[in-house]
């Protein structure tokens, strides 16, 4: 995967992460909270965050001062 493809993938993952956050908030504020659905969404959100971090770590290497 090229660096440009990784940057595009990163943006897609960030958008999906934000969308899941909004969906979780909407479920929590609505009257009927389905715990299983919220748990699945949170698990998916966590996986996305891991993927985002992995790509960011590759694109932005640590600089030892």
TrEMBL record:
Keywords: Coiled coil. Residues 3-58 form a coiled coil. It comes from the Bacteria. The keyword Coiled coil applies. This is DUF465 domain-containing protein. It comes from Novosphingobium beihaiensis.
